[in-house]
Amino acid sequence: MEHRVVIVGGGFAGLQLAKDLKCPNLSITIIDRRNHHLFQPLLYQVATTVLATSEIAWPIRAVFRGRKDVTTLLGEVVGVDVEKRLVSLKGGHAIPYDTLVLATGARHAYFGRDEWEPFAPGLKALEDATTIRRRLLLAFEKAELETDPQARAGLLTFSIIGAGPTGVEMAGIIAELARRTLVEEFRNIDTTSARILLVEAGPRILPVFHEALSQYAERSLASMGVEVRTGRPVTDCTEEGILIGDEFVPSRTVIWAAGVQASKAAVWVGAETDRAGRAIVQPDLTVFEHPDIFVVGDTASVKTGDGMLVPGIAPAAKQQGKYVAQMIKARLNQRSAPPAFKYRHLGNLATIGPSSAVIDFGRLRLKGTIAWWIWGLAHIYFLIGTRSRMAVALSWLWAFTSGHHSARLITQKETLKDEV
Predict the structure, then answer these.
(1) End-to-end distance of the chain based on CA atoms, in angstroms?
(2) Which DSSP category does 303 fall into?
């Protein structure tokens, strides 16, 4: 009789697990709300017109087309019956499992101010990226038509809330877009006058990096015209702008890069959660009292050897997926289970602008052009398939040499009331 493994989520952890898990008498079912795997580390480049959506996303079915043991289902999970071992889908379908792996990821969190989301979209899915891209481009188009100087200034002010790697990388590319790519394309506005504001509630940007690298990143952003505000949180966000402390900044385009909230997967299986809603798992990544249920990736709260949380980044998710594959194979082959999961940190990377990046490997820290090349090569290496690697490399080469971005199409219907 086949052992049925159900993986909920086709992100880095789920995909790595399915790739590594090859055993006789085993069937794998991957369930995801979308039909594609997304390379999230480059999602901000879709949002800022550098890359097209097809360059960082691939149909999950295509990834496993040669694996007859893998079935891919497009569906939304709404619950899990742990007693009957059934995964419930929206629409009434139920998928049986012998081993369940929850790799459902996370969404952006607004720290109890969910009413900000319509004005400050986050960045976790392709739909988020195309929404942000549309708002960025529409801001310039509206400013070209606007005759009131004050209203035009609000349109040409772009605010990014949160100065982790995503926020920093986003600010750098928006600055490049305004000061290099669009300079000669508008007649009534000077795109170089655009104000790019990066707001961080903490004392410095890139807080997970060494302080010297954070300082370098801030200087680099300043040289690109980015205004960095640290030490004061955003206290309100409206259609007209943001409130930093008690200072109101008119800004018609706001991007949220400040926090994430785990999916409801922990609730489905009755697992204890941390403050971000992540399931607190055992050292072998299983749920307490449910050894047949694993939770991995951004959905799981996993501690490192020194008691710190494993970060919600792609390498960590892939390592967890690989570990769970080893666990399942050991069980099926009646071998001893591998030791408790141990996270191996590969370093932190962030790009700032053309020929500028920071890399923190712990004892080894790099910045500038060398770091930028390493950042680019690392991201190309982790892309799926030769075609994607070539497409991204060519897009980056074109942007670097010409200053133009190849994905500046306004295509998605916007939901804001003041649509052009």
Answers:
(1) 59
(2) B
SS3 at position 221: helix
How confident is residue 412, by pLDDT bands cut at 50, 70 and 90? Answer: low
Place of tokens 């497409």: 391
Distances (CA, A) of 180 to 192, 316, 355: 8, 35, 14
Span 109-167, pLDDT tens digits: 898 899 999 999 999 999 999 999 999 999 999 999 999 999 999 999 999 999 999 99
Q: What is the three-class DSSP state of 219?
A: helix
> How large is the C-alpha radius of gyration of the chain?
22
Q: Residue 72 has which token pair? A: 């891919």
Catalytic residues: 169
* Nearest-angstrom CA–CA distance, 337 and 372: 40
Are 304 and 325 in contact by the 8 Å Cβ rule? The answer is no
The DSSP letter of residue 241 is E
> What pLDDT, in 10s, does the model give residues 1-19?
899 999 999 999 999 999 9
Rounded CA separation 311/106 (Å): 12
Beta strands per DSSP E along 190-347: 195-200, 226-230, 234-237, 241-244, 247-250, 253-256, 260-262, 279-280, 286-287, 290-295, 300-301
- Bridge partner residues of 81 (DSSP): 86
User: What is the per-residue burial (b if ≥16 Cβ within 10 Å, else e) of 144-173?
Assistant: eebeeeeebbbbbbbbbbbbbbbbbbbbbb
Cα–Cα nearest to 97, from 208, 231, 3, 20: 3
Distance CA 273, CA 300 (A): 9
Q: How far apart are CA 213 and CA 207, in angstroms?
A: 10
CA–CA separation, 105 and 94 (whole Å)? 21
By the 10 Å C-beta count (0-12 exposed, 13-18 middle, 19+ buried), 190 is classed as exposed
| Alpha carbons 388 and 379: distance in angstroms, whole number | 11
Which amino acid, 301?
Answer: S
Q: Are 134 and 412 in contact (CB under 8 A)?
A: yes
Q: CA–CA separation, 279 vs 294, rounded Å?
A: 10
Model confidence at 308, pLDDT cuts 50, 70, 90, reads confident
Report whether 351 contacts 176 (CB < 8 A). Answer: no
- The span from the CA of 260 to the CA of 279, in Å, is 14
Q: Which residue stretches of 8-80 are H helix?
A: 12-20, 43-47, 60-63
Q: How many CB atoms lie within 10 A of CB 411?
A: 10
